[in-house]
TrEMBL record, chain A:
This is Checkpoint protein. Residues 274-295 are annotated as: Disordered. Pfam families: Hus1. Its main location: nucleus. Keywords: Nucleus. GO terms for biological process: double-strand break repair via homologous recombination; meiotic DNA integrity checkpoint signaling; mitotic DNA replication checkpoint signaling; mitotic intra-S DNA damage checkpoint signaling; nucleotide-excision repair; telomere maintenance. PANTHER family: CHECKPOINT PROTEIN, MITOTIC AND DNA DAMAGE CHECKPOINT PROTEIN HUS1. Residues 275-292 have a biased composition (Basic and acidic residues). InterPro entries: HUS1, HUS1/Mec3. Belongs to the HUS1 family. It is found in: Nucleus. GO terms for cellular component: checkpoint clamp complex; nucleolus; site of double-strand break.
TrEMBL record, chain B:
Acts in DNA repair and mutagenesis. Involved in promoting resistance to ionizing radiation and UV light, as well as regulating cell cycle progression after irradiation. Coiled coil: none annotated. Residues 413-429 have a biased composition (Basic and acidic residues). It comes from the Eukaryota. InterPro entries: DNA_clamp_sf, Rad9, Rad9/Ddc1. One of its GO terms (cellular component) is checkpoint clamp complex. Gene3D superfamilies: 3.70.10.10. Keywords: DNA damage, Hydrolase. One of its GO terms (molecular function) is hydrolase activity. Residues 289-371, 412-453 are annotated as: Disordered. This is DNA repair protein rad9.
Amino acid sequence: MRFRTQLKNTRTFSKLTASLSSLGKVCWMRLEYDVVRFTVIPDQGTQVWAQIPVDTIFEESSYQLESNSDAVNIEINISLLNRALRSTMGASSSQLRLTKKDRMPLLALTVLTTEWTEGNMALATDGLVERRPAGGSATPSDVVGDRRARERETWITQEIPIKILHEDVVESLHEPHCPDPDVYIILPNLMQLKSISDRFTKLASTESKGQQQSITVAEPAASTAGATALSTNAAPKLELSANMHGKLRLAIATDGLRISSVWSGLVNPPLDPAHISEDRTSQLPSERMRETGDDDEAGWARVRIDGKDWGRVLSVGRLSPKVVACFINNTALVLYVYLPGTWNGEESCLTYYINSFTA
Amino acid sequence: MTTLSLSLAPPAIVRLHDMLICLSKFSDTVAIEAEHDLLRLSALNSSKTAFLSFACARESFFENYSFTTRQRSMGPGADRFYCQILIKALLSIFRGRVDRHKDTAVERCEMELHEDSQQAECRLAVKMICGLGVIKSYKLTYEPASIQHAVFDKSRAVNKWTADPRFLKQITEHFSLSAEQLDMYSDSGKAVFTSFTTKVMDGKEVLKYPVHTSVATDKRDFEQFNVEDKMHIAINLKDFKAAIAHAETANATITARYTYPCKPLQLTYDFEGVSAEFTIMTRGEVDGDFAPASSRSGIRELSQRQTPGAPISVQRDRVSREATQNGQMPPPPPPPGRSIKPLQGSSTQEHLSRSMASERPTASSLSMEFDSLFVPADDDRQWDEMNEEEEEEPQDILGWDASGRADAFAATLRDEEPGFSRNESKTDEAETEGMRIPPTQRISQVRGFGIFD
C-alpha cells in the first residue's frame, strides 16, 4: 500500500477540510486512481459524501497510489488534517504521503516554506544591541548565524495519526438512496442564506427561552406543557421550501413568532437528458410540481431541518460553490455542492443528505 | 522593621503588568523579593518544573526605590525581604490603567510596604496617581514567605542558542493546540523543534492521538546556535510559549542555555533594566555520554545505600505518572540522588531559605511522603530488583536543586523561625557531596540532640 503526492490548491483543500470538519470529526477518506472521496457520517445530523477529482487538490503528475484493492481507505480526524494544512499557507511545496512510525500508520504532510529574511533586520537586533552580557557570560561574538539577507528555508512535518480501513469494512457503507426529488433549485448566495438562517435560528432559540419564562409566570398549567414541548424540540427547526418556479422560502415558526424570507427568480436547472429518457422525464414528480401554478401551495416541497445543523452545512459556502438543492417533500433535502471551475467538466461534488424532521 | 517604597513611571507600569501576566501563567502567587539594588518577582509552578524570575534593577527600572531593613538575626539572608501576593489581586490594580489618552490616565504608581514584627498586619499599599488629581489607593494583603530559587549554573551550560521571539513564535504556530511538549535537537545545520504529547492513549482511539509536528529551520536563522548535535531535549511547550510571548512584548532576544536532558534549561533575556530568567526542567533520554553520573546510577545507589530515600522516590514517581496523565510535567521528586551531583551553581545564599510552606503542593498526601523521607514506610519494593519501568524513571526525575528536600522539612518540622539552621545544615551536607554518609538513624531517634529540634 502506497500513497504519495504533491499538493496543489492547498487553499481549496484546506477550505474543503474545514467545511467537512464542521459536520463531524471522523472522516473516511478513500483514495482512488482518479478521484479522492471524503465521507463524513456523524452519529446525528447531516452526512456528506464528497468526490474530488485527483487533480483538484493533488498534483496529478506526482500522484502515486498502489493498493491491492485499487483504493486506499483511511479514517482520519478531519479537523487535525485541517489544522495541519494551515502550515501550507505560503508554502513553496507540500507533500502528503502515507507512512508508518512505530507500526502506527500516519499521514505525513511535509511542507517547505521559503521566505525572504533581510538578515539582521528580520531578527530583532535592537534587542541584541541593548543586551548586557549577564554575569560576564559569553557575549554573542561567536555568532554562527548568517546575518546577510537570504532566503530562509523551513521544513515543517505534520504527522497525523490515521486508521487504515480494510475494503471489507467500507463495503457496507453506501451512499443513501433517495426518491426522485419533488423540486430542485439552485440556492442563492450561501453567505446571504447562512446569515439569514443563523439569524432566524437565533431568534427562535432566544424567543423560545423567553417564552418559557413568561409562561411559567403567567400560567402554571400551560408551562408544563410548554416545557415538555421545548425539551423534545430543543433546537429550533427551520422550514425550508421551494417550488419549480424559481422560488425558495426560508421560514421559522414558534409559539411567539413566525418569520419567513422568500427568494424568487432562482433557477430550476434542467435535468441532463443523457441520463433520463423523454417519457421517464414526464413521470418525474418534479415535472408534476412544475405543472402546478406558481401561486399554488401544492407546488411547494417542504423540509424541516435543524437550524444549527443547517448552519454547519452552509459552512461549505467558503468554497464559493454552486449548490443545487433537491427537495423530497417532508422527507429529505439533498444538496449537490459543485466546486467552482468544475461546473460542467470533471466534477468536484459534495453531496449532503439532510433528513427532514416531522412537524 | 523593614520598609520598602518604590515608584514607577507609566512605561514601567506597562512592563510590570506584562510581567505579572506572564507570571500568572505559572502560578497564582507572585513571590516578591526585595534587596538593596533590585526587586525580584518570581513564580514557581505547582509541579515545580518551571521557575520564572524577573529581576528589576533599582537604577534603571524604578523612578524611586528604597529598601531598608533591620533584622535581629544577622544571617546572610537578613538583608532581604520576602513576601508573596496573589497575582490576581495585583493584576486587577493594573488592568486598563495604562490608557494614556484618558484624562485620568495613570501618571505614577507608588508602592509602600512596612513590616514590623510588632504589627500583625501585612499590607502592601499601592497608590495610583492619575491625571486630574485622582489618586487610587489599594491595600493588598501579602503573606510572609521565603523564596525558592531554581539554581542554574550558566557556566556548565554548554549548549546555547539565541533567537528572536518572533521567529520562535512562527515555529510554535505550526504546532497543534493540544501539543504539550516540545523536543529540540539539532542535526547537520538544522535546528529541529518537534511538538508531542505524552498523554497515554487508549489503543482503540487512534484518531485521538495527537499530531506530531516538527519544524526544521536553518541554524542561520538563529542569532547564535551552539548546540551539541543530535541531542534531544524536551520541555513543556506552554512554558516555552509563555516565554516567547513575553519576550515579544518586551522586544528582547531570547537566549537558551542547557547542558543535557533531565537537567534544567534556562531561557533568559534582558530589557529596560529587567532581566528575565525562565528555568525549566527538561526531559529526554539520558545518555551515558551526556551524564556520566546520571540519575540512573543515582537511583540505584539510593535503593542500596540510602534506605530513607528509596521509598519516597517510588512514591513520587507514582505521583509524577499521574501528573503526566493530567497533562502536566511531573513534579520533581525530592532528589536525594541529586546531592551526588547537585546543580548548585549560584551562591549559597540562594539555598538558605527555600522553606516556602505555601508552595507545597496539596498538603496532606505529600506531607505523609515527607514523613517517610526519614521513617521509611513499610515498602518492600525498595529491595526488589530494579525493573525496567523504574529504570526508565530517571527520565522523569527532574534535577531540581535541593529545594524539594528543604521543603520537606518545612512541611513537617519548621517552627516559626524561617528554619535557616535546618536548611543550612542540609545545604552543608549537600555541599560536602563526596563525603556524604547516608543517614542510619530514624529522625525520631535523633530528636533531642539539639540540631534537629
